[in-house]
Amino acid sequence: MNGYYEILGLQPGASQLEIKKAYFKLVRQYSPESDPEQFQKIREAYEQLKNIQNAPEGPTFSALEEPFAEKMLKQVEKLFREGNFELCRDTCQEACRLFPESLQFIYYLVLTQRKCGNTGKAVKNAELLVKKEPGNKWFQKELAVSYMERGFTQKAYLACERAFELGCQDVDFILMYATECSSYGRYDKGAELLLTIIRQEKRWSREDIPELVQAYLGLVKMNYFGTVNYFPEILERLHSLLEQYGTFMAEYLLELSTMLSRVGSNLAEKREEWLKAEQIFDLMEKLCRTDSEKDHLKDARKEFNCQRFINDKRIGKILKRGYEAWNDLADMDPMIQKFAMTDTQLCMIEERLEILEQAEIIRQDYPEFYEAMQDFFEKLKVEKNLVFLKESLQKIYRRIEPGFNGGYYYKEYPEEKKKAEGIRINDGHRDEPYVRETKKIGRNDPCPCGSGKKYKHCCLNKIK
Fold first, then answer.
1. Which of 58, 80, 253, 322 has the fewest CB atoms within 10 Å, counting from its CB?
2. Exposed e or buried b per residue across 58-78, where buried means at least 16 C-beta atoms within 10 angstroms of its C-beta
3. Which residue in 173, 144, 178, 146 sits closest to 158, CA to CA?
4. Residues 145 and 173 sit within 8 Å (Cβ to Cβ)
């Protein structure tokens, strides 16, 4: 048994809550898709350790008539409890040879063959169990698990479906079934299964929370890939859960906030839904216990709003580039952000009317970005000041643009680049010469003021 605790990163004698928490943390790190071998080890350890204090729930069998068969069964059960699976498997094989009609031995043989890595043989024996008793939900469940561990995705999905119909509807099985739905691409079905968990009208205990959190995490994934939008219900129920069980939920804030940060792209234009998500962020902020959690939540919220903005179809590409310059480059070299923002603002001037229309959307739905851009938006509204605004930005742009790649202004408005060719500005930032647009006045040339005197006897002296 100690090996199972070690797989879950626990000390022997860990509580059921600790076992659940460790399991659900690890299966998110080692999913069936990314690391199926490690996932199976974690799953096996969890199955072996959960409810270890109680008799395991499973099928019931008829009493054995042969005394020797009963003796062998007790030996099998003892070996299984002790974790001596190879000897248990071999004993089961011998018992199956001696008592081929006793399903107890076939059942334990399936379990031990899987634990010993004999997944192909486990599948064959699980199929035999189901053939003998097609209506036995436990046999059907073991067939589903055997198919899953063997990598038979379609067969595992169908076996899970049948086991569910026969009555295997505990939370652990539903989570397993939903995982198989995801692997098989049945996202809507997986979402429906997980919804049965979060819709339960019951008083949740602290021990229930790891499975409940796992259901929410799975639901977000299923909803993202599925065809039915369950986000309104998911967000509403999660908000209610945090309100009622905030004390229990506090230790799952990192996972939940990370989950929420990824749904912004789905809620870009769904005002009621993203407002509910913002309320959830507010609740989680109150539950934060450390500065680290607060920082993580702040980053998650920032990512949520970024995803929402970038995927908002009401906003054009220019303002989205401006948002990225404001949001993503805030912690980088100030000159990089200055270049990106100047580049964007010049593009905004060229598309002034369209930008002003979108500015109203930003004012209502993205107040932080609007506040950062408000001064520029106000200047953009005053048409008579546009020439001066554009010239002042172009002066900055001509000075810093040669040091950067990837600007959009000259690329999208090439005529502006042609106008700027030959112009160099020396304002103390670059060692480049000033290029005159007119011929230089010589000392002996007529003074341009029209006095009739030579330049050296007139205005040249005034300059000095």
1. 58
2. eeeeeebeeeebeebbeebee
3. 144
4. no
From residue 124, alpha-carbon distances to 130, 135, 150, 297 in Å are 10, 18, 11, 49
Give the residue among 394, 307, 300, 402 at the shortest CA–CA distance from 349.
Answer: 394
Q: How far is CA 143 from the centre of its chain?
A: 32
Residue whose tokens read 């399936």 = 110
The arithmetic mean of pLDDT across residues 57-74, rounded, is 89
Separation of alpha carbons 207 and 268, rounded Å: 35
pLDDT score of 431:
43
Q: At 446, phi and psi to the nearest 5?
A: -60, 140
Binning pLDDT at 50, 70 and 90, where does residue 423 land? low
pTM of the model: 0.71
DSSP assignment of 206-230 equals GGGHHHHHHHHHHHHHHHHHSSS--
**d(C-alpha 234, C-alpha 220), whole Å:** 8
Listing DSSP states for 431-464 in one string gives --PPPPSSPPPPTTSBPTTSSSSBGGGTHHHHH-
What's the pLDDT score for residue 422?
A: 62
Average pLDDT rounded to a whole number, residues 276-299: 93
Q: Which residue has the higher pLDDT, 201 or 314?
A: 314
Q: Can you tell me whether residue 50 is helix, strand or coil?
A: coil
Instruction: Between 454 and 360, name the one with better pLDDT.
Output: 360
Give 8: exposed, middle or buried? Use CB within 10 Å, 0-12, 13-18, 19+.
buried
Backbone torsion region of residue 303, taken as left when φ is above 0, otherwise alpha when ψ lies between -120 and 50, otherwise beta: alpha
CB atoms under 10 Å from CB of 37, counted, come to 11
